[in-house]
UniProtKB/TrEMBL annotation:
SMART domains in the cross-refs: AAA
PANTHER family: ATPASE AAA-TYPE CORE DOMAIN-CONTAINING PROTEIN, OLIGOPEPTIDE TRANSPORT ATP-BINDING PROTEIN APPD
Source domain of life: Bacteria
Membrane topology of the entry: Peripheral membrane protein
Cellular component terms (Gene Ontology): plasma membrane
Gene3D superfamilies, alphabetized: P-loop containing nucleotide triphosphate hydrolases
GO molecular function annotation: ATP binding; ATP hydrolysis activity
Localisation per UniProt entry: Cell membrane
The name this protein goes by in its record: ABC transporter ATP-binding protein
Native organism: Kribbella albertanoniae
Length: 275
């Protein structure tokens, strides 16, 4: 994508409800507004069950088939549901588990080449690996021969195979140590120079050290409670939940959250943190 193509990813008033039977439903996303632009990676953080992965799924079209969606999601001239039909070409996806990207009994090079052909990408497997900083010798290896960090880089390379203007990564650092996590965060921030990059992660420390100038949205109980520059939020958070979330980090004393995480089933519309 050229620098002139200022593709944005925009979510407006997005709601996702997942029926679970007996007239009950999970409030997976509620009134979510988000704007992600090229040049600045956009990280989404929050505790388990806050809605981060659902947010990624609503952009990439990987919601459960019975989920109910409302609102607007648009990018590159497409809006949902048409946007979902262009997964790979408009929206590249890095899944939670990098191993799920690949067939274990085939070498990495052949799988990447097949993905490029299917999506009509312009970069070959070796160029994709170079883009993510992975040695081309990995092309001759089976996925199980790669370390966790190498496999994560390969998954990011696969997400770029169709030259998508938008890349969505769901918990790309979850199985990595601190050093590798920061490397992946820096890579994703670098890739955002000429495309939209949206990343859901629980790893606040990696974002703080690896991408302080990124945009950051904090989620709690299916809602975005705060958005701003990552470094500013880490230094002076505005939302009560963000302050308590940061206080729970090991380097800040591992203080437990003073308020319980709510059940998202039939969550009251007026629920707020501490309420």
């Amino acid at each position: 994508m050229s620098g002139a193509d200022r593709v944005t990813l925009e979510l407006k008033a997005v709601q996702v409800r997942i029926p679970i039977g007996a007239g009950r439903e999970v409030h997976a996303l509620t009134d979510v507004d988000l704007l992600a632009i090229p040049g600045k990676p956009h990280f989404v953080v929050g505790g388990s069950g806050s809605g981060k992965s659902t947010l990624c799924s609503v952009v990439s079209g990987l919601l459960p088939s019975h989920a109910r969606f409302a609102g607007t999601v648009s990018a590159a001239g497409f809006a949902v549901p048409e946007l979902w039909r262009h997964r790979g070409r408009v929206v590249g996806v890095v899944p939670q588990s990098a191993m799920t990207c690949f067939t274990p009994v085939r070498r990495l090079g052949g799988q990447l080449a097949e993905t490029v052909r299917y999506l009509g990408g312009e970069r070959g497997p070796a160029e994709l690996l170079d883009l993510v900083g992975l040695d081309p010798s990995a092309l001759t290896k089976y996925p199980l021969e790669l370390s966790g960090g190498m496999l994560q880089l390969a998954a990011i390379a696969a997400a770029l195979a169709g030259d998508p203007p938008v890349v969505v990564a769901d918990e790309p650092t979850s199985a990595l140590d601190r050093g590798r996590s920061e490397d992946v965060v820096r890579l994703l921030a670098k890739l955002a120079a000429d495309r939209v990059v949206l990343v859901a992660t629980h790893d606040l420390a990696a974002v703080r050290s690896g991408a302080p100038d990124a945009d950051l949205s904090v989620m709690f109980a299916s809602r975005i409670v705060e958005t701003g520059r990552a470094g500013d939020i880490f230094t002076a958070p505005r939302a009560d939940y963000t302050r308590d979330l940061l206080a729970a980090l090991p380097e800040n004393g591992l203080h437990p959250l003073p308020h319980p995480v709510p059940d998202l089933i039939d969550l009251p519309a007026d629920y707020r943190y501490g309420g």
